[in-house]
């Protein structure tokens, strides 16, 4: 495999936004390393799939090591894997707390650490993480402290990493979605969820993909939290 062809690593890649990102980067002639707990083996030589729990420190290290072994480089990491649990603060269980922190925070930290080490060696790279606009625009109708705690940490880390690595050729950005129409939202909830946005509708998976691709193609943009949220972060 030529080391000149760019490589994107995408977490949470088996469905929804992650699956769409795999297709989008393939269409831009990237080789792909796709990982999730339930991802199936790939018959496409340009797509390496790795099943594993992203919250496990070993998984992130293994994914980046396999990317380097198979394709020789890592140009982009999209931290898409995440869990969203909405509940009143006092009703979260210890098990839910551990689950969210493991997937959202551990799942960001370990694979990003391994990816940045690889990118430093080659002198270039791009990290994009999917957060949530609820970090900056909390809604009383959607109590979600665990999302804010974990994704808010990623948003802050995005800016910190962007500054730390700005002169080393590595850009770090994030996309902060509103509510996106995916299979996790039952059709009977769509009207309520759409009304949470000033534009009056839910977002589409393509909206998030386009946001990520914009950041991918914007070499002067780093430390940016790009809100793709139908106006939620601007107000109501």
From TrEMBL:
Q: Which SUPFAM superfamilies match?
A: NAD(P)-binding Rossmann-fold domains
- Gene Ontology BP, a term: fatty acid elongation
The lineage is: Bacteria, Pseudomonadati, Pseudomonadota, Alphaproteobacteria, Hyphomicrobiales
Which InterPro entries does its entry note?
NAD(P)-bd_dom_sf, SDR_fam
Top-level lineage group: Bacteria
Q: Name the family.
A: Belongs to the short-chain dehydrogenases/reductases (SDR) family.
Protein name as it appears in the record: 3-oxoacyl-[acyl-carrier-protein] reductase
Q: Which GO terms describe its molecular function?
A: oxidoreductase activity, acting on the CH-OH group of donors, NAD or NADP as acceptor
